[in-house]
Amino acid sequence: MIAFTLVIDYFLHRMNLIFIGRYLGIIGTAVILLSFIYSLRKRKIIDSGSPKKLLELHEYLAWGGSILLLVHAGIHFNAILPWLAVLMMLIAVASGLIGKFLLKRASDTLKEKKNDDKGKNEC
Questions:
Q1: How far is 112 from 117, CA to CA, in rounded Å?
Q2: In degrees rounded to 5, what are phi and psi of residue 71?
Q3: Quick check: 111 and 103 in contact, CB under 8 A?
């Protein structure tokens, strides 16, 4: 994610399009808010959509929005507030990755248990 951010930031500076970074904050925030459709479906606030597909969409939108926000924040070594915001966002992204890992691990464990139970019933 940080590598994508650096590449995008580099090209914006190279092409003298630095002003675009100002607007990426609004777009990135909108994209992240759009990713919350999965959370609404998970909590049964909305009924439409496949939870699995919405989870995938949530992941892509959250990553994309985070990258846009990182580009918007820029690389300012003299300002503490952008760095604190970036740190908080990276913590949120890390918690999402940990959640994805735990979900996969739980799914694999349930599949193993189901297969073990199936094998016992056949004997």
A1: 9
A2: -65, -40
A3: no
* Tens digits of pLDDT across the chain (123 residues): 878 888 998 999 999 998 998 899 899 999 999 999 998 998 989 998 888 899 899 989 988 998 898 888 876 667 787 778 778 888 988 898 898 899 899 999 999 888 887 777 665
Query: Tokens for 57?
Result: 């969409």
Angle between helices 51-73 and 80-122 (to 10 degrees): 160
Q: How is residue 76 written in tokens?
A: 């300012």
**Distance, CA of 106 to CA of 35 (rounded, Å):** 23
> Which structure tokens are listed for 8?
């995008």
What residue spans define the domains of the chain?
2-122
Please tell me the pTM assigned to this model.
Answer: 0.73
